[in-house]
Design goal:
The protein has 482 residues and is an alpha/beta fold. 39% of the residues lie in helices and 20% in strands. The strands form 5 sheets. It has a 7-stranded mixed beta sheet with strand order 14-15-16-13-12-17-18, sandwiched between helices. It is globular, with a radius of gyration of 23 Å.
């Protein structure tokens, strides 16, 4: 039986009866069938969310009670953590250590973080100059919000959108990527089990047309999207028709600056992990390595040698470091970028091919790839590859490397490797990115904002910033004159 849609608290097939399939990227075998939603299902889900939004069972729920529901979801995530991690690994391909220690763990943390915020959403008293007048503001939910999530971290990203949307009192239509729908459906089930009222959380599975219908729907007050820059630009254009609120977390091309005085061994280890976690399928992954010219050769040799030692294999193998890419389409995309890099004159130091061998031939595996001699105008230096491809450059001075690191349409994340505190702060201030890491991996925490500059998107997720994304400010004037 195919996995069904969650609409108004009920599991139902698509109105059309159509189904699609999801595959295990480690073997290419079919995992499950899921309902292929259409425009009628979008209409039904939005109507259910609107009804739930106006229902006193949700509308008049106290902030404390709303927070308790979110806390319960976190408890249920932790109860089912092992099963959720395995499901995510089977559907997405990432190593089980990553799904266990990052995806599922972060999802529970996010729900607990925003459970606490449910009782702390405040307005303020405004000092106006009109005599005998009181003015204050209220923070109110937007209404029905559409959450559209990508295939690279399905469970975690669904959680970090859903939790603040619910904490602020909105109702939701959640649409996961068609490549990885299974864990999001499970999250919807956990919300029901936690006691969140019917229709507050609705889950629609299906292809891009479902997302397009959700974005265009006049009954939706906001869209929160994580995915490609191209699709984000399309969403912004469509949303302009009715001026619905939009937040976008899009692509990245994170520079990593390795200074002359950096601990090279630490930089190699950190950059390798920061570049290749989830097989490079992360918008914050480190991809452009600017190394001081005097350390360039040492860094290149060491990171290429280290890349060759990484265990490639199915995500369910606990020894796996590099799992498969999510699909044949993504495998072909990465291979195409690598071929283009060679054609444009970059030096292929290691990797650059589909991985083969026992347990690998039927999956979408690609060897970790290191290029040297890369120019800033090459395609592999400009476009987001979303795979295990590292490009190494050299630089001579700080002004040069800052200009080159900032010479990109993206601005999501960056990293600096230095043992000089002054240099760390000075460079961090000059880099155009929503997040700058210093001597560490690209981490995400519920308390820290996440989002980008330029074509990396609009708005911020996590922290108090997400509360702003899911609320409106209302001013109230009261005449106190008798």
């Amino acid at each position: 039986m195919a996995e069904q849609l969650l609409i108004a608290g009920e599991w139902v097939p698509a109105a059309s009866g159509q189904v699609s399939e999801t595959f295990d990227p480690a073997s290419g075998t079919r995992l499950a069938e899921f309902a292929e939603a259409g425009s009628a299902d979008v209409d039904a889900a939005v109507a259910a969310a609107r009804t739930a939004y106006e229902d006193p069972a949700w509308r008049d729920l106290s902030p404390d009670a709303r927070g308790r529901l979110l806390w319960k979801v976190a408890d249920l995530i932790e109860r089912d953590a092992a099963a959720l991690a395995e499901l995510e690994t089977r559907d997405q391909g990432m190593p089980i250590a990553l799904t266990t220690n990052v995806n599922v763990t972060l999802a529970a943390q996010v729900f607990r973080y925003y459970a606490g915020w449910a009782t702390k959403i405040e307005g303020k008293l405004s000092q106006v100059s009109v005599p005998d007048t009181l003015h204050y503001t209220r923070r109110e939910p937007l209404g029905v919000v559409g959450l559209i999530t990508p295939w690279n971290f399905p469970f975690a990203i669904a959680a970090w959108k859903l939790a603040p949307a619910l904490a602020t009192g909105n109702t939701v239509v959640l649409k996961p990527a068609e490549q990885t729908p299974l864990s999001t459906l499970k999250l919807g089930a956990l919300c029901l089990e936690a006691g969140i009222p019917a229709g507050v959380v609705n889950v629609l599975t299906g292809g891009p047309e479902v997302g397009r219908a959700l974005v265009a729907h006049r009954g939706v007050n906001k869209i929160s999207f994580t995915g490609s820059t191209e699709v984000g630009q399309q969403i912004a254009g469509v949303a302009a028709a009715d001026l619905k609120r939009v937040s976008l977390e899009l692509g990245g091309k994170a520079p990593s600056i390795i200074t002359r005085g950096a601990d090279i061994d630490a930089a190699v280890a950190g950059n390798l992990q920061g570049a290749l976690f989830n097989t490079g399928q992360a918008c914050g992954a480190y991809t452009r390595f600017y190394v001081d010219a005097k350390r360039h050769d040492e860094f290149t040799e060491k990171i290429a040698a280290a890349a060759q030692t990484l265990k490639i294999g199915p995500g369910l193998d606990f020894d796996t470091v590099l799992g498969p890419l999510v699909s044949q389409e993504q495998l072909d995309r990465v291979a195409g970028y690598v071929a283009g890099g060679v054609e444009q004159g970059a030096q292929l130091v290691t990797g650059g091919r589909r991985a083969s061998g026992a347990g690998l031939d039927d999956g979408y595996f690609f060897t970790p790839t290191v290029f040297s001699g890369v120019r800033d105008d090459m395609t592999i230096a400009r476009e987001e590859i979303f795979g295990p491809v590292l490009s190494v450059f050299s630089y001579d001075d700080e002004d040069e490397v800052v200009a080159r690191a900032n010479d990109t349409d993206f601005g999501l994340a960056a990293v600096l490797w230095t043992q000089d505190l002054t240099s760390a702060h000075r460079l961090a201030a000059r880099i155009h990115a929503g997040t700058v890491f210093v001597n560490q991996l690209p981490l995400i925490d519920p308390g820290a904002p996440w989002g980008g500059f330029g074509l990396s998107g609009w708005g911020r997720e996590m922290g108090t910033y997400a509360l702003d994304e899911f609320t409106e400010t209302k001013g109230v004037w009261v005449n106190l004159a008798r």
